[in-house]
């Protein structure tokens, strides 16, 4: 079909342009934009020269209570405010000394990708356009990494919390049929039970909660010393629930536990799920991408048999926030859990509305940004081999840290180090209070920032090495600072 109208911009009457928000002085804007880009590159390139984190303080915080801007402010003034009040006070995960929680460091290419995606401003909820093909391309790559069939569907989401929720909702729909979507859980839904290890992330019970099943429908199964789910206890819990008239429907395996980076025996879980006819979901928030590292991939054996998988590109793969991802083995089941047709979203044989299945058929979001671009650019620019090598290096640094801890009599290693996370503490009088204080002081120092967790009830300083910029000197700084602060306490 040819174009009906050939309308050049010169045919648009000037009056219709007056409300455009595009800059009137494009050359001036261009100069400012170039300066901002240069600043942003320099900011990342010189990140070591600045404190990792610093508190805002009451006065500065007060500046975010300003009246709303009814009138325009020049871009240069707003940018200056950003430089003064926002940039120096961010969470700090670009900095190589950041070792808290599970945060990726981002990359300069990812930063550019955000800008490029911003120019397109593509709504990736649906329709027929290249950004959706970019996302489909990544779905195909992820399928290939894990040995999943072409029938598997994938979707970018905010993070693994959302990916886990999508998986639970898909498993719920698979268990209860279509009625759950129109009539709610009913008596059958109230019988559903799910299983995950005690080391599973807190977003797993939350997903059960949001799915209307209640967080207590998730049975938290004890782990062994290596934080892997105890299969004997899992089997016993399933049997007890069946005997009590409950209906087990889901087992969640963890590939990289948040506390120490432990991997459940996914092969055994897959076999048990098949035998018991349970949906097998894997929370692989960070650990799943270990598939790119030949030394780590064996930890994931069994993942090829899962029904669904959640992972984050914004963690170990260093894609800028946010870039969560969910993969479901049977695309039809994922659509059955989420798709609903509205007249204004009708699919067409041709034109912009072409394509039978759109991303919004696979999750709760209708409008969606172009998260796939920053992932596509990161994967292509660095290549999966190099990303895998970078992951291996973070594990080496963690082993180095564990060895340093073991060599210092004042320090105590609190958990095994199967991956890139080290939990340890300074030995002392009131160790919980002492180590919480040390962690807070380290963060305030602006040099290194671990977080804390509890291992068998003991408060641990937790150093999670996810940042590709972290080097041995950062690990040394952490050890020296803990020793110094512990001795001074
Ligand atoms: C094992 C695990 N699952 C789930 C999550 C939640 O991921 P997100 O913060 O991307 O929602 C995390 C976050 O650290 C995690 O480590």
Could you characterize what this model shows?
The structure is a single chain. The longest helix has 37 residues, at 371-407. The protein has 489 residues and is of the alpha/beta class. The protein is globular. The chain has 15 helices and twelve strands. The N and C termini lie far apart (78 Å). A hairpin with a 2-residue loop joins strand 11 (449-455) and strand 12. The strands form two sheets. It has a seven-stranded mixed beta sheet, with helices on both faces. Helix 4 (108-120) packs antiparallel against helix 13, helix 6 (160-176) crosses helix 12 and helix 13 crosses helix 15 (472-488). Helix content is 41%, strand content 13%. Residues 102, 159-161, 201, 203, 256, 258, 283, 285-286, 312, 324 line the site of pyridoxal-5'-phosphate.
Kindly estimate the percentage of residues that lie in beta strands according to DSSP.
5-15%
Quickly count the helices. 15
Poorly predicted runs of 5 or more residues: none
Rg, Cα atoms, Å: 25 Å
Number of strands: 12
Shape descriptor reads globular
Largest sheet: 7 strands, mixed
Q: What string, H for helix and E for strand, traces the elements in order?
A: HHHEHHEHHHEHEHEHEEEHHEEHEEH
The percentage helix is 40-55%
Distance between the termini: 78 Å
In terms of quaternary structure, what is this? single chain
Overall residue-averaged pLDDT value: 96
User: Strand order within the widest sheet?
Assistant: 2-8-7-6-5-3-4
Summing up helix and strand content along with how strands pair, one would put the structural category as alpha/beta
Name the bound molecules.
Answer: pyridoxal-5'-phosphate
């Amino acid at each position: 079909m040819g174009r009906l109208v050939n309308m050049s911009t010169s045919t648009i009457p000037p009056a219709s342009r007056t409300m455009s928000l595009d800059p009137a002085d494009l050359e001036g804007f261009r100069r400012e934009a170039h300066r901002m880009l240069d600043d942003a590159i320099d900011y990342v390139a010189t990140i070591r020269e600045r404190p990792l984190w610093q508190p805002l303080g009451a006065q500065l915080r007060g500046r975010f209570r300003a009246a709303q801007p009814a009138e325009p402010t020049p871009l240069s003034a707003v940018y200056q405010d950003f430089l003064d009040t926002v940039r120096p006070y961010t969470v700090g995960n670009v900095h190589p000394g950041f070792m808290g929680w599970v945060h990726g460091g981002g990359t300069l290419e990812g930063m550019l990708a955000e800008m490029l995606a911003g120019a397109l401003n593509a709504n990736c909820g649906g329709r027929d356009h290249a950004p959706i093909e970019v996302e489909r391309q990544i779905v195909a790559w992820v399928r290939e990494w894990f040995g999943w069939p072409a029938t598997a569907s994938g979707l970018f989401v905010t993070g693994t919390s959302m990916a886990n929720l999508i998986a639970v909702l898909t498993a719920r729909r698979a268990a209860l049929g279509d009625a759950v979507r129109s009539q709610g859980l009913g008596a059958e839904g109230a019988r559903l039970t799910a299983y995950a290890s005690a080391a599973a992330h807190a977003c797993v019970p939350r997903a059960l909660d949001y799915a209307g099943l209640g967080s207590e429908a998730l049975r938290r199964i004890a782990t062994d010393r290596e934080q892997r789910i105890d299969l004997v206890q899992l089997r016993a819990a399933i049997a007890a629930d069946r005997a009590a008239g409950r209906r087990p429907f889901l087992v969640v395996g963890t590939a990289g536990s948040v506390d120490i980076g432990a991997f459940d025996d996914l092969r055994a879980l897959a076999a048990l799920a098949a035998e018991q006819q349970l949906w097998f979901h894997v929370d692989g928030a960070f650990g799943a991408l270990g598939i790119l590292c030949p030394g780590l991939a064996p930890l994931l054996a069994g993942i090829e048999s899962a029904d669904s998988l959640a992972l984050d590109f914004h963690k170990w793969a260093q894609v800028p926030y946010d870039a969560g991802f969910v993969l479901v083995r049977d695309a039809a089941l994922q659509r059955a859990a989420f798709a609903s047709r509205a007249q204004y979203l009708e699919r067409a044989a041709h034109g912009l509305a072409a394509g039978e299945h759109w991303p919004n058929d696979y999750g709760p979001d209708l409008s969606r940004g172009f998260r796939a671009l920053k992932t596509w650019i990161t994967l292509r620019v660095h290549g999966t081999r190099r990303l895998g090598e970078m992951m291996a290096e973070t594990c080496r640094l963690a082993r180095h840290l564990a060895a340093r801890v073991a060599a210092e009599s004042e320090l105590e290693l609190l958990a095994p180090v199967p991956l890139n996370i080290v939990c340890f503490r300074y030995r002392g009088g009131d160790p919980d209070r002492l180590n919480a204080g040390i962690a807070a002081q380290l963060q305030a120092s602006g040099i290194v920032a671990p977080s804390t967790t509890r291992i068998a009830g003991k408060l641990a300083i937790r150093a999670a090495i996810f940042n590709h910029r972290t080097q041995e000197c950062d690990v040394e700084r952490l050890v020296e600072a803990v020793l110094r602060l512990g001795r001074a306490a």
